[in-house]
Amino acid sequence: MNCSSKMRNSLHSQWKTLISKYSWCAGGSMFLYLRQIQTIAVPFFFSEVAHTLHRVMATAGQVIKCKAAIAWEPNKPMVIEEIEVAPPQAHEIRIKIVATGVCHTDLYHLFEGNNKEGFPAVLGHEGAGIVESVGPGVTKFKPGDKVIPLFISQCGQCKFCKSPKTNLCERSWSNERYDVMSDIDSRFTCRGKKVLQFMGTSTFSEYTVLNEIAVAKIHDSAPLDKVCLLGCGIPTGYGAAVNTAKVEPGSTCAVFGLGAVGLAAVMGCKAAGAARIIAVDVNKDKFEKAKVFGATDFVNPKEHSKPISQVLAEMTNGGVDFSLECVGNVEVMRSALESCVKGWGVSVLVGWTDMHDFSARPIQLIAGRTWKGTLFGGFKSKDGVPKLVNEYLARKLKLDEFVTHTMTLDRVNDAVELMKHGKCIRTVLNVSRQ
Hints:
Layout: H1 5-21, H2 27-36, H3 46-59, E1 64-71, E2 79-85, E3 92-101, H4 104-113, E4 121-122, E5 126-134, E6 146-149, E7 188-190, E8 193-197, E9 207-211, E10 215-217, H5 224-227, H6 233-245, E11 252-256, H7 260-271, E12 276-280, H8 287-293, E13 297-299, H9 308-315, E14 322-325, H10 330-338, E15 346-349, H11 363-366, E16 370-373, H12 381-393, E17 403-408, H13 412-420, E18 426-430
Parallel strand pairs: 4-8, 11-12, 11-14, 12-13, 14-15, 15-16, 17-18
Antiparallel strand pairs: 1-2, 1-4, 2-7, 3-5, 3-9, 3-18, 5-6, 6-10, 7-8
Helix pairs in contact: 6-7
């Protein structure tokens, strides 16, 4: 039978929709339905349909065995293991992870947090993938959808989700377990032991399971090895500037720390119309990269005998309008605050840490400065991430420029070493074939 290209594409789309919609059915019922509508099909499609049905129905509702990088204990390299991933329960989604970034927060948990109750765990929280199957009650996702797992959920029902003042969610894993950075519940096991899901996501695994309130559906054309960065670092820095600091056109900004989060903050300052963006880092090799994202001035604290706040005050006639601390160091946090101009200066804590207390002299705030923090850049996750993906697709947001290295999952420890020594901006791990 001959079909025009237009008809062929139309039928192909119908089959895809059909397969996704009825992939949960038992085999007999599924094929009975297919037989009823076979008049719209052509033999050209049968091989693809059979293959897709076999793949989906072979794993849906079953335990999947796959590769994952497990951190068995603090301060030790991760180990590639075979784990078991349970099927999704009510309102849950099982996702095939295609790509994931390696973020400093992964290193923080592994090397700095040192809370043994947070192990063993599958790390990773900056990923993107494809829905493999869904649990009962899930209606807004289907197998085949491209998605980004979210470490900060958005249930849409709690007092935080209903408020425009915050992006927190009462149903998030982080509501009570910041110290161990994972929920008590998990769909992972390895060698008969429960393995924790780091930050509710665990993207250093070929498959993971999340509640639907922590998953964002994204555009079908989005390249997963790029948009995975929108799972954490880029929204955090970018949003810190545009949402939390609310950088104003014509203002002067200082960004402390030029990792991926800091560079995203630079990008956010530029997008908000800042006239002057001062990039501050002890690694001068990062200054050229910062220029790509919009930095206009560059300061290496090691090259000055004065406190960095004094250096910036002299450069800006009293201090910057906005400062963003993207390191996660309490001493740098204080320096960033003191670098702001009195009267209206705003300083934002962006870098993640829960290790030490921070301090400042009260006069710094009495004089009119504002000190505030941000989580995920203030973006409400399920609403914000798809919009950021669309901005990237429209070439209004940079992502490719952050990726300096690409590796496979089994080289995750190499990626960690690169980050530890400041030799990368973002390493993306190819976890599964798409």
